[in-house]
Every structure is written in structure tokens, then in C-alpha cells.
Write a structure and sequence with these properties.
The protein is 39% helix and 21% strand. By secondary structure, the protein is α/β, with parallel strands linked by helices. Helix 3 (37-44) crosses helix 4, helix 5 (125-140) packs across helix 7 (184-192) and helix 10 packs across helix 12 (315-332). It is globular.
Length: 369
């Protein structure tokens, strides 16, 4: 998917400054009616001259356009500006162990198109990179050619960890040790000729959820073909100093428990997936609740959100089962208000949309991408 003229895409990536992010976020929130330069200056604390300079560049790049004139309050009617949603797009890719989901978002975060394809994560790097590149190209093809296609800012990729988010390198993915040390971000970027960001599936989902929230601290627990957690602390995704935070599934809760794909025994992931395989969903929910209760006690978070295809297969029982464990823990500790447990919004596209937000969120100064 080579492109010789990046157009607005590269220009928008270059706008990742604090002031430009403030302006872009207010334009996004204003929606179609738009917002005036004076209002932008008042709400950001920037000088009118600074706002004029920023908005002039945004207009020149085609990212902002006039939205009409606002009614006069005694003086000259002022021109409102609005964001052009289709001036930029981001592709989000969710690489799971056996399938791939892709979504194309515009600047407002609205989904323009999506795709789904079979995938074998154990087929090797060349096969996976080739499939991902082909599917990204097909998805971006809905934009046509020329300026519309060049509006693609880049690709966010989310997959099971552990991995090095900073350097875009995979580590020993549970069940697939052959990926250890593979520079997936750079390999895919060379193939696509686009910027690529790589993160764990749970972190991407947490980022997507944080973008739509009003701050606070929560844990997103993803139970699909594996189990992990995305942590949002004080409104920002918490990855840890070595980007290894959130390996929730491999906390040991039974010392003599069954072996886990990570090499340990009695991990929450092994116990949960084992119970699910036996059809014991209530038992799986209790084990997941035990791990969630440990996390709540450790971090004092405000909310637990559940997602992933295994949770989606019986969401009510998982939410109820995890909630029951947290409620019992709260009663034992004399806590009046137990931490609530809810099904994460977003459905099966949650991780892919979060992956796209790895590119979009920093442009608007939202959460931490």
C-alpha cells in the first residue's frame, strides 16, 4: 500500500503538539455546528493570534472548514469552524490467535468500514504480516484513490502480549514462543509504507474505553482465547516502566493447579479457560472474580469492565459471577459500596477500534495513546 504523496495524513501526525491537540479536541466536541476562534481562545487559554495560526494551518491541510456564521449578539457575526471527519483516517487491527478484525475510523472515531479474516498466529511471521498487509490494503481501498486514500494516518495493531510497546517488538506470546523478539511494528510499516503502532490487545481496548470516559481508574478484563487486563489509572493507560503491566492472566491463584501455556501452574487464565472448556461457566466466572478482587484490592480502582469473545458467549453469567465475588470481598472488608462490574461497550470491534485510537487519541490529547 505505497503512497508517494502522504498529503494531510503526514501533516496531521506532525501536529501532535499540546496546543494543536487542545484546538482539535474542541473542534471534535463541537460537532457539525462548529466553534468560533474566539471560543477556542477562551476555552484553551491561548491567545487569539495563536488560535488563528493553528486553525489556519488546519484549514490549509483540509482538516477544518467553515461551518457558517453564528448569530450576532450585537457585533459582527463570527465564523464558526468545524472538523472535517473524513480528512484523516486510522486503521485498527486486532490480531487474535485464530482471527483478525480490522476497522477504519475517521477523525471523530466513527467506523467507516470493517473486515474480518481467519488467521493462524502460529503460521509464522511472514504469513501473518502478509495477511495483515493484504487486509489493511483491502480495508483502505474503500476510500478510493488519491487524496482520500492518502488520508490514512497509519495502522494501530493490537495482539496478545507480552510485547514491547515502545520498540514494537513481540516477546514470548503465550502459546507462540516463536514470536519472541520479532519486530512486528517495523516489519508491517515497511510492508505498508505507513506509520504503525503496536500494543497489547488489552491496552488498546482500555485506551478506546478511556477515550469515551470522563477519567477515573478502571480495569478492562479480556477473556477470549487468553486472558489479560488493560489498566486505566487516573484517565491514562498504565503500561508500566517496561510496558509489561496487565499480564493479569498469569497471576497464580492455585499453587498446585493445572499447567499454563506460560510455563507456570495454577494461573487465572488456565483455570478460567479450563472451566469454560468443561462447560463450567459459573466456575470460570468465580475464578475470574477472584483475580479481579485481587486487582481491586491492589489498585483501588473504580470499575471493572469485562470483554472478549468468551465473556460475550455468556455475558450475564460472567458479570454476575465476578460481581458476586467482588461484593463478598467488599462485605468482608466492611466496604459500603463494592466496585461495580459491567460488560464493556463496543462488542467484538472493541479491540480493533482501540487499536485505531492508538493513532487518533494522541492527536486530540485524549487519554494516552
Amino acid at each position: 500500500m505505497n503512497r508517494t504523496n502522504a498529503g494531510a495524513g503526514v501533516n496531521l501526525l506532525a501536529l501532535r503538539s499540546h496546543n494543536a491537540a487542545l484546538v482539535l479536541e474542541l473542534l471534535r466536541l463541537a460537532g457539525p455546528p462548529g466553534i468560533t476562534r474566539l471560543e477556542l481562545a477562551e476555552r484553551t487559554g491561548l491567545t487569539p493570534q495563536a488560535v488563528s495560526k493553528i486553525t489556519a494551518r488546519l484549514r490549509s491541510d483540509g482538516l477544518v472548514t467553515e461551518a457558517g456564521r453564528q448569530a450576532s449578539t450585537g457585533g459582527k457575526p463570527r465564523t464558526a469552524l468545524r472538523l472535517v471527519p473524513g480528512a484523516g483516517h486510522a486503521v485498527g487491527v486486532h490480531l487474535d490467535r485464530d482471527e483478525m478484525r480490522l476497522v477504519l475510523l475517521d477523525l471523530t472515531g466513527a467506523a467507516v468500514a470493517e473486515r474480518r479474516a481467519a488467521l493462524d498466529l502460529g503460521a509464522g511471521a511472514a504469513a501473518v504480516v502478509g495477511t495483515a498487509a493484504r487486509e489493511v490494503g483491502a480495508l483502505a481501498g474503500v476510500l478510493g484513490e488519491g487524496a482520500a486514500r492518502s488520508s490514512v494516518l497509519g495502522v494501530g495493531v493490537a495482539m496478545p502480549g507480552p510485547l514491547d510497546h515502545v520498540h514494537g517488538v513481540l516477546q514470548r506470546v503465550t502459546g507462540f514462543p516463536e514470536w519472541d523478539g520479532f519486530p512486528l511494528r517495523d516489519a508491517l510499516a515497511r510492508r505498508l509504507d505507513l506509520p504503525v503502532v503496536l500494543d497489547k490487545d488489552t491496552n488498546a481496548a482500555a485506551l478506546g474505553l478511556a477515550v469515551g470516559s470522563e477519567g477515573g481508574s478502571f480495569a478492562y478484563l479480556h477473556l477470549g482465547t487468553g486472558l489479560g487486563a488493560g489498566l486505566v489509572l487516573n484517565g491514562a493507560v498504565h503500561r508500566g516502566a517496561r510496558t509489561g503491566a496487565g499480564e493479569f492472566g498469569h497471576q497464580v491463584v492455585q499453587l498446585d493447579g493445572p499447567p499454563c501455556g506460560c510455563g507456570g501452574r495454577g494461573c487465572v487464565e488456565a483455570l478460567c479457560l479450563g472451566a469454560v472448556a468443561r462447560g463450567a461457566v459459573d466456575e470460570a466466572a468465580r475464578v475470574l472474580g477472584t483475580g479481579a478482587a485481587n486487582l481491586v484490592a491492589l489498585l483501588d480502582i473504580d470499575l471493572v469492565l469485562l470483554g472478549g469473545r468468551t465473556v460475550a458467549s455468556d455475558p450475564d453469567r460472567f458479570v454476575r459471577g465476578v460481581g458476586t465475588v467482588l461484593d463478598a470481598r467488599a462485605r468482608r472488608e466492611g466496604v459500603c459500596s463494592p466496585v461495580p462490574v459491567r460488560l464493556a461497550p463496543g462488542g467484538p470491534r472493541l479491540v480493533a477500534e482501540g487499536a485505531a485510537q492508538l493513532l487518533l487519541a494522541p492527536l486530540f490529547g485524549r487519554a494516552e495513546g
